[in-house]
């Protein structure tokens, strides 16, 4: 493996540990990714001794001015060229059942490899000159890598009980790498699932987001559901699972439909929050499900109710309660609109309203809606996607013509107050809404002069008379 350790940082570390006759190894994800032929910019260095002291010596030799030291964890980190390198002393760990924070003692390399989460992450390459590049693989991690299987170095029941976050990591790696989790390891996750409750929601969501950002997130969500973890970390999503049949009429399983939508979206967008929108677009269907004789299953207003559910879900899962959440709310609220347009005659008025409501997010909304077509009927899918292309063309045409996306009405409240000599009152809002509706309906262009004349006419209907004043754009007389 010497040929893979050509980066100058390995020569610098090797020089120091050889001079001081230290056991030192590059370990973990960097080594794993060498075998997977994937690039990695994060390097973990383990030394039998002090990781902090070694980091300081390497920094001095490499002329790196800043070393971040974490004394409580016995680790140090520095950045060199394009790499981020973390140093730690070899250690062994023991756990108290009520915490995932281990009791740490100095240990050997073997002790350190035993405490690793998976065999593929326990691979180590020596950096001492005498055996530079030699692979130490006591748990057959290379075999597991070649067989694309995830196993723990030690007894999986103990591994997951000690640190339950490893259950999420196992599923995340299975999703990202498209590996299989061994049956013994999977059964240990099922057995230990309730231990996830000692993990902070921030750490859980970090792993869940990595699953969502993978090429095929459904792999992870099916494993989370199968092991019972999903019900504990995201109960609202599990409620989507299952079909119901009445009078010979069934609705689709919205759990699997949602995962199909998410998988179909991933090649077209790596926007985490659009992917969350796909996950949540039908989240209110269990709450809105009804069977109506002569019609069948309905999920009336599931988009409106779903939008209202999102702040609580985000708060419970420790997701950001900011513009990212509002974006997801908007996508969930509007996700039916382009689909309805694709089924009907596409009018300029409907397109203007969609542009007005979606604003700059209309392109993301269209990606979500196209991913939402999951019918097994190829002709139906073909027809819908063709209609969506028509909707996209109309969006472009109307936007170029009417400049409706994120438009501000050409008449503001202050101008209405000045023209009609009003104090703040409901009529001002009524006139503003009437102007907006007239523009969206195509009755008047999105221009000040046309909106001004419309305002005068609307004011007249409401019994308002303009004061004797000349507008800079349009005289009253």
From TrEMBL:
The keyword Transcription does not apply. SUPFAM superfamilies: Nucleotidyltransferase (SSF81301), Poly A polymerase C-terminal region-like (SSF81891). Keywords: ATP-binding, Magnesium, Metal-binding, Nucleotide-binding, Nucleotidyltransferase, RNA repair, RNA-binding, Transferase, tRNA processing. Coiled coil: none annotated. Residues 255-372 form the HD domain. Its cofactor is Mg(2+). GO terms for biological process: RNA repair; tRNA processing. Residues 179-237 form the tRNA nucleotidyltransferase/poly(A) polymerase RNA and SrmB- binding domain. GO terms for molecular function: ATP binding; metal ion binding; nucleotidyltransferase activity; RNA binding. Residues 24-150 form the Poly A polymerase head domain. InterPro entries: HD/PDEase_dom, HD_domain, NT_sf, PolA_pol_head_dom, PolyA_RNA-bd, tRNA_CCA-adding_enzyme. It comes from the Bacteria. PANTHER family: MULTIFUNCTIONAL CCA PROTEIN. Belongs to the tRNA nucleotidyltransferase/poly(A) polymerase family. This is tRNA nucleotidyltransferase. The lineage of its organism: Bacteria, Pseudomonadati, Bacteroidota, Bacteroidia, Marinilabiliales.
């Amino acid at each position: 493996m010497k040929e893979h350790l050509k980066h100058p940082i390995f020569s610098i570390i090797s020089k120091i540990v050889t001079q001081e006759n230290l056991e030192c190894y590059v370990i973990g994800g960097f080594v794993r990714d060498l075998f997977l032929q994937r690039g990695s910019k994060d390097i973990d260095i383990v030394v039998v001794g002090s990781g902090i002291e070694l980091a300081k010596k390497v920094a001095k030799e490499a002329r790196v001015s800043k070393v971040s030291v974490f004394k409580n964890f016995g680790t140090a980190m520095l950045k060199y060229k394009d790499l981020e390198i973390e140093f730690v002393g070899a250690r062994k760990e023991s756990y108290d059942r009520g915490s995932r924070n281990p009791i740490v003692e100095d240990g050997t390399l073997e002790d350190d490899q035993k405490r690793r989460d998976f065999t593929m992450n326990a691979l180590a390459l020596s950096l001492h000159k005498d055996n530079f590049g030699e692979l130490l693989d006591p748990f057959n991690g290379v075999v597991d890598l070649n067989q694309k299987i995830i196993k723990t170095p030690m007894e999986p029941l103990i591994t997951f009980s000690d640190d339950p976050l490893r259950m999420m990591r196992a599923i995340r790696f299975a999703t990202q790498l498209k590996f299989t989790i061994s049956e013994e390891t999977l059964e240990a996750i099922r057995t230990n699932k309730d231990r996830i409750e000692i993990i902070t929601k921030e750490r859980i969501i970090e792993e869940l987001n990595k699953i969502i950002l993978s090429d095929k997130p459904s792999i992870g969500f099916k494993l989370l559901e199968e092991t019972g973890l999903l019900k504990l970390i995201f109960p609202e999503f599990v409620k989507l699972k299952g079909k119901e049949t009445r009078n010979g009429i069934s609705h689709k399983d919205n759990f699997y439909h949602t995962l199909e939508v998410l998988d179909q979206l991933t090649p077209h967008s790596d926007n985490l929050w659009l992917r969350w929108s796909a996950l949540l677009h039908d989240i209110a269907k269990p709450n809105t499900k009804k069977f109506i004789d002569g019609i069948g299953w309905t999920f009336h207003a599931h988009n409106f109710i779903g939008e209202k559910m999102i702040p609580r879900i985000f708060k419970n899962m420790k997701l950001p309660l900011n513009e990212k959440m509002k974006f997801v709310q908007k996508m969930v609220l509007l996700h039916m609109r382009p689909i309805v347009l694709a089924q009907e005659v596409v009018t300029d008025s409907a397109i203007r309203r969609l542009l007005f409501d979606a604003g700059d997010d209309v392109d993301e909304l269209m990606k979500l809606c196209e991913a939402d077509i999951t019918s097994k009927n190829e002709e139906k899918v073909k027809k819908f996607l063709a209609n969506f292309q028509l909707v996209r063309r109309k969006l472009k045409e109307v936007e170029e013509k009417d400049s409706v996306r994120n438009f501000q009405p050409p008449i503001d409240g202050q101008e209405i107050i000045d023209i009609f000599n009003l104090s703040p009152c409901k009529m001002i809002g009524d006139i503003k809404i009437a102007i907006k509706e007239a523009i969206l309906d195509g009755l008047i262009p999105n221009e000040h002069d046309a909106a001004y004349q419309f305002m005068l006419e609307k004011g007249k209907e409401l019994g308002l008379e303009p004061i004797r004043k000349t507008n800079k754009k349009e005289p009253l007389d």
